[in-house]
Amino acid sequence: MIYNPQAGGLRKGSGKVTFIQDAFRGQGIELQLIPTRSPGDASILARRLVESECQLVVACGGDGTINEIIGGMAGSHVPLMIFPGGTANVLANEIGLPKDIRHCVQLLCTGSLRRISLGKAGARHFAAMAGIGVDAGVVEAVNPALKRKIGQGAFWLAGFQQLARYHFLPFEIQVDGHSHSCTFAIISKSRWYASRFQLTPRASLFSDTFEICLFHSTNRWRYLTYLLYSSFCKHEFLQDVTILQGKNIKAVGPDQVMVQVDGELIGTLPQEFQIQEDALTLIMPSDL
Prior knowledge:
Layout: E1 2-3, H1 16-26, E2 34-35, H2 41-51, E3 57-61, H3 63-73, E4 79-84, H4 90-94, H5 101-110, E5 112-121, E6 124-126, E7 129-132, H6 134-141, H7 144-150, H8 152-165, E8 171-175, E9 178-182, E10 184-188, E11 210-215, H9 222-231, E12 241-246, E13 249-252, E14 258-261, E15 264-268, E16 271-284
Parallel strand pairs: 1-2, 1-3, 3-4, 4-16
Antiparallel strand pairs: 5-6, 5-16, 7-10, 7-14, 8-9, 8-13, 10-11, 11-12, 13-16, 14-15
Helix pairs in contact: 2-3, 6-8, 7-8
């Protein structure tokens, strides 16, 4: 098990890592614990485990840690089992993982092995989504110390700060050769965004296409309307919101516009996005 000891749900006193190890031992499986120590560690560790022909990789941490592990495992057939241990846990929510880790352990016996496709932003893999524009600005603006104290509340605070400060610069996004102008784009394999919104309600981990949601307004206060409508999954009925499907995407625009994948900043525009089919095996509830 690769785990991030600094993840929101794993810091000192939680006992979650020991509990998981004991639960596996109860199933006759000895789980080797491998903590990460710095950014990028999880990807390197996952790649080494895959190359060593291990039978199962277990991941415990937030979306950033899970993203790194997936990057190290992409293209392999070694199964990945996820225990949510972060702030948002978007991928865990997407595949319907139980919030009770005792029930997660039971997936060793009751779960299913499913192959999924992954997104790629340049060379960086992602399972859930990529964001271009203001949400990447929010990721950059989040105070790590505050995030450790109040969890998702730190993202909301950073979000409202960005509403007042962010420059909603237009950029061009080309979806399978067709161009659109927008100020915020979500390129997704996941229905869920930030754990509670469904900005791309027809996205699927099992699909070999992205669902893309584009917001077009340059008016910062219009984003309050977007937020309200998104809360009720009604944003797609707004005239200045576009939802479409695609496989090959190129985004070009000012180099001040940032890009994030699975909640981790990866750089600025320009950026290209593609699908890697049949890329990863996940253990998930059998009724998904």
